[in-house]
Amino acid sequence: MKHITLGFGHREVTVSLPAHRLLDIVTGKDVPPITDVPEAVHDALHRPIGSPPLPQVVSPGDKVAVVVSDLTRMWVRHDLFLPPLLDELNQAGVPDNDIQLVVALGAHRRHTDEENISTYGSETVRRVTIEQSYALDADDFVYLGTTSRGVPVEINRHVARADKVILTGGIVYHSMAGFSAGRKAVLPGVAGYASIQGNHSFCLHPQIGQGLNPACDSGSLDNNPMHQDQLEIAQLLNPAFLLNAVYTADGDFARFVAGHWHEAWLEGCRAVADISGVTISGQADITLVSAGGFPKDINFYQGAKSIENAYAATKPGGVIIAVMECRDINDPPDFSQWFEYSSLLDREMALREAFTVPGFVALKLGMLVRNVTVIMVTLPENAAFFAKVGMLTAGNVEEALTMADAKLGRHDAKITVMPCAAATVPLRRP
C-alpha cells in the first residue's frame, strides 16, 4: 500500500492506495526557495533579460508608473519585493515622489486603504502615491489605437502618460491566457472596459453554442488569440521594464526575472513550466487531487484550478476525486451565481453578453463535467451547491473511491494522485 497525505482546509487526510493501481504521483520540481528577496531583486534588476539594467533605463526627472497586481493576487507578495524595487529606483536618481503605484484592478473593485497596506506593505504605502485603475471609470483612460483583431486599446492615463512604465506581477499557468503576468498587467490590468471585453471575447468559441475557444488554454501561447491580442496591446504602450516573480510549488519565491517586458516574461514562463509542468505516463482512469489545503480550498473558485489541471490527467469518461473543504462555498458571489443558469447554453450566452473570468471558469467547469465524473470530498453542507455544478459528493476519500470504482465498473482502475493540483499542470508526452 502507498500512503498519501492530502491537504483539506487546515488539516490533512491520509489515504492508502494499492501500489499496483498507482499510475503517477504528480508533484512539481523541488526547487530551493529564495531566502534573501532584496538581494535576488537587486540581482535580477542588474542582470536583466533583453534590456539594459534598470539604472540605465530610468533617469532623474522621470515620472515612473509601477503597475502592481490587485488584492485578488495577494500570493504575488508585492509587499516583499516592492521596497527593494523602490530602493533601486531611488539609487538610479528617481525619488519616491516621482513614483506612482498603479493598481491593476481590471474590472475588479477598488481597494480600501487597509487593503493597500495588506497587499503592498506599510512601507510601500508610506513611500509612494497609489492610483487605482478601475476599468469602468471611462474618464481615466486614453485611447492608444486598435489591434489587428479590432480591439480598441484604452489605457489608464496615469500609465499612458508616465515617462517610464514598469510592470510587476507573478507568473503562473493561466487557464485562458496560457500564463499570467507580463502583458496581462497592461490588459486586463490597466485597460478600459471595452478593451477588456473585446480581448476576452476571444476565449469564446467563434461559433455560438460551442462554448470555449480550445486555443485559449493553460500553457498555450503560440495560437492563443487572447494572448496574441494582449501582446499587441502591450506593444502599443511599450513598457520600459518588467519585474516578475516565479514560485515554488509551495508558493515561495523561486526566481525573479527582469528586463524587457516580453523577453524577460517569456523566460519566466519557461521557468514556471520547468517547475510546475509535470510530464505524466498517460491519462488515468481516476485522478485524486487536493488543491493543497487552506487557503487554496477556502471556496470552490479558489479550488477550481485544481479540477481543470486534473482534467488533463484523466481519461475521457474517467473520474476526478477532489479533496476540498470549501468552507466559504458561496463565495465569491460573482462566481457561484453562474451555476444558477438552467443550461450551459444560457451560461454561455450570458458570458457573451458581459464576459467575466468567474463566468469563464464556471462555463469551463460545466463543459468539463460532461466528459468526466467529478466527486467532491467536502463538507456535508456543500452537497446542494455541487449538485448544481453537476458534481457528486462524498464524506471521505474511501467512499469516493468506492463510488469511482462503481462508476467505472471495475476495481483495478489506474489512479493518478495530484497533492498540489493548484500548482502543478500535467503534461502529456508528445
Indicate the radius of gyration in whole angstroms.
Answer: 22 Å
Total beta strands: 20
Class derived from helix and strand content: alpha/beta
* First-to-last CA distance: 31 Å
Q: If helices are DSSP runs of H or I spanning 4 or more residues, what is the number of helices?
A: 15
Strand order in space, largest sheet: 3-19-15-16-17-18
- Give the rounded overall mean pLDDT: 95
The share of residues in extended strands comes to 25-35%
Helix share, percent: 25-40%
Low-pLDDT stretches: none
Major sheet description: 6 strands, parallel
Notes on the structure:
This protein is of the alpha/beta class and 430 residues long. The protein has helices at residues 37-46, 54-57, 78-91, 113-120, 122-127, 157-160, 193-200, 225-237, 263-276, 300-312, 333-336, 344-353, 357-368, 383-389, 397-408; strands at residues 2-8, 11-17, 22-25, 64-69, 99-106, 129-134, 141-146, 152-156, 164-171, 173-174, 178-179, 241-247, 253-259, 277-280, 284-290, 314-323, 373-377, 392-394, 415-418, 425-428. Strands 3-19-15-16-17-18 form a 6-stranded parallel beta sheet, sandwiched between helices. It has a 6-stranded mixed beta sheet with strand order 6-5-4-9-12-13, with helices on both faces. Helix 14 (383-389) links the parallel strand 17 (373-377) and strand 18. Helix 1 packs across helix 3 (78-91), helix 3 packs across helix 4 (113-120) and helix 12 runs antiparallel to helix 13 (357-368). It is globular and about 70 Å long.
